[in-house]
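In practice, a research group might receive sequence data for several interacting partners and want a quick structural hypothesis before committing to experiments. The following worked case mirrors that situation: the sequences arrive first, and a predicted assembly follows.
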Amino acid sequence: MINEYIKKIKDKGLKEVINEYIARIEKSDINTFIYFSKEDIERQIKILLHRKENGEEMPLFGVPIGIKDNIAVKDMPLTCASQMLENYISPYDAEVIEKLKEKGAIIMGKQNLDEFAMGSSTESSFFGPTLNPYDKDRVPGGSSGGSTASVANEEVLVALGTDTGGSIRQPAAFCGVVGFSPAYGTVSRYGLVSFTSSLDRIGPIAKKVKDAFILYNTISFKSTKDMTCFGGNKINVDVRNDKKFNIAKPKEFYGDILDDEVKEKVEKVWEYLLRNDNIETNVSLPLAKYSVSVYQAITMSEVSSNLSRYDGIKYGLKAESANSLNDIYYLTRGKGFGDEVKRRVLAGTYILSSKEFEGVYEKSLSLREQMKKDIMIVFENTDIVMVPTTTGLPFKFGARTKDPLKMHFSDSLTAYANLAGIHSISVPIGFVDGLPVGIQLFAPLGREQILYEMALRIEEGVENGEI
Amino acid sequence: MERYKIKIGIEVHVQVNSKTKMFCSCSVDFGGEPNSRICPICTGQPGVLPAINKDVVNKAIIAANALNCEINRESSFDRKNYFYPDLPKNYQITQQRIPIGEEGYVLIRTSKGEKKIRVRRIHMEEDTGKLIHDISDETLVDFNRSGVPLLEIVTYPDVENEEEAVAYITRLRQILIYAGVSEASMEKGHFRAEPNISVTDMETGEGNVRSEIKNLNSLKAVERGIKKEIERQTQMLKNGEKITQLTMLWDEKKQDLRIMRSKETKLEYRYFPEPDLGNLVLSAEYVDRIKNTTPKLPYYYLDKFTDKGLSRDKAEILILYKETAEMFDTILEYNVKSDAAFNLYQEILSMIKEYGKDVIQNGIEAKEFANILKMLDKGEINRTQAKDLIKKRYTEKTDINKLIEKYGYKQVSSEDEIENLVKEVLNENPKEVERYKNGDLKLQGFFMGQIMKKSRGKANPAIAGKILKKLIG
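A structural hypothesis for the assembly, expressed as tokens:
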């Protein structure tokens, strides 16, 4: 659709096409944007047209893209959906944003998320939740709920979200769009507000698989500012491959943990694929049951340190009536952070304190290493691993907020891939009771082209009505 | 055995002389407007990441090598978490688990002889910003220093008194300056030393509790501060008082220590591996290549100079500055007599006191110095002239030969000429001759002075003295 879009601009002109998007954003009642400025967009258009006149080549010329509000865009707010950074304007561009601007994309605004990317429903945003475009009583998922909902609602053509334990894939599934969580280290994190440094990644959200991978190609360059980023392999988006692939169906991700609706829909995908590919069912990832615990231990520990910088001293919220240094810290952080953020920072601080360190943090790291080894062995005999994205349909607002643990278990099918550091993508597979369902594909580094091919096959199956 | 055993460990933080900071490309300079050398990274803005400064890594390898440490090819980066306004991320990136170097040593020399002070570890870390308390009624923060690269060097408690502490710090600074790793100026804050001191009553076992001293900004302060703390703890032991862990602050105005805080509550730093960097992994080949670029260190020059016959004391004087050590080393290559060279070299050392090290950069060169020594040795010029040439070579920026011509620096050694001069002087001063002959032998100096004056400094003093003696006894 990016290609069609670029053709549309040639026919109608950039201003007119973008005005259509602006109209949809202004009409939108699902609260997808934290920051949206028509004047800013018009300014960007002016600059782009000027650059085009000068003969500059821009492969993403005029593509309207939404940016999750934990990714830095210079001179735009960087709130992370938190009161702590409510009035903070970023003084710099994230590396991926520099690249998108270079290629001619238009940044339509900053999009809603769970506070500091912690959550699976966007309900913890200081600016109110985003609504699921398919059912406004239900959550769009999280933490990249604003980004996935806006793509589903055609407010933007594509978006950038972030994924730590499933925060691109789960909301993508809930909103019926494609959400790609690239392997750790393939996309620069410079400019992504850190939640869990060893798991965070930026990834593309789009309606079409091809668009997601075009965007991935753009943002997966080798970084000079992120020492954990080595860049990714470029995918040839115009190449198809009719080879028969081996797909693994690990036991632990199926069965009774899934709601019936999801179970049925997912089975249709297997039936469809069986026509062309091999399905390996005798596959086990025995440590999968520890995914959420290991994930929480690591994320809470790292986030307790990553969020220390928000202290009322340098920028952001500063509590009034602070009479001492400790007051500044306590009152600012007490006011600026929401409950889920506080919960995780407290737990993480506790885990990292010396009594618990070996037992919880170090043990989690070694479990994670083993989980990675286990899936790499599976990948020796199969090309792709396929698991559902969520255990059920998008839930109603308030359904999981009273029980934080229940909310954490939304990550049960998605966290494993990020703990193992591999690629994972959620592809929409249709609707049940009018609500979207998605399925995940996992692939190791180096197997991006196969991942692309498999994602396309599923997309085609859905479009043909065969899934 | 002494009743009161003193154990002192010294922790030094030294600023690496790289052009940019440890994790960002802000420049590292001295002074300047507050918050003028900052960027999103060193001010801990949301979303930024650290990038390692390769020059600092190389200098850390060289420093570790210069301190005879084992170099860890894989070393860690860790977060040290605590809240303070001068720490923008409220954690410091350091190397806690595996430092770049460990188990080394430094050789010091005191009145009692040579001693080895063992270095437990050397590691890289970033500096904090500065808090400024005295400009307004609020405390202000300047982040220019935030992120500046530091090496932390920690010894075992091998130091036993303030003299050894001063010798260690002096030698360590020397080594780091020679290694080209730091300017190591205590005044500029490049080099901060914190001693940890404990005194133990060997009869009762009481004591053995460490306290640390901060804010010792000069060698004198180090010496006095340590001395006071040893006295304080020793006195407490004599009085039967219990010693607690304390952090002391040196008050420069009062020239005394005061208690800053009790060290009882151990601060919880929640160290964990820095996920934004991972471990630093260096190949053996890389480490060797960098080690081989280590410049010549103080002991190289000490050994060389003493091999050439200079006393150890004289050699130590020459190595006080790297520049003088290098220069003297070059001078020796011209086959001069080392003691004669050392004596004449005093002129350069006193010029450095007056004009600074520019004397070495823009004054006499080693080859010229060696030539002057040769002329002096042959008697072509005398000592006064030699010293004068050295001085004027710098102050007038003229080459030696031109100076010799300009000032007529030639030593008169002809015995006939000198004899005439001596006779003239004696004829002009008959009263003094009389007094001398009557036993006032001190007047020999007066006559020599007059001879040198009359010859405009050119008379060969040895020959003049001989002839004077011949004529008046």
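Before designing any experiment, note the following. Residues 426 and 440 of chain A are 4 Å apart (CA to CA). Chain A has a mean pLDDT of 95.
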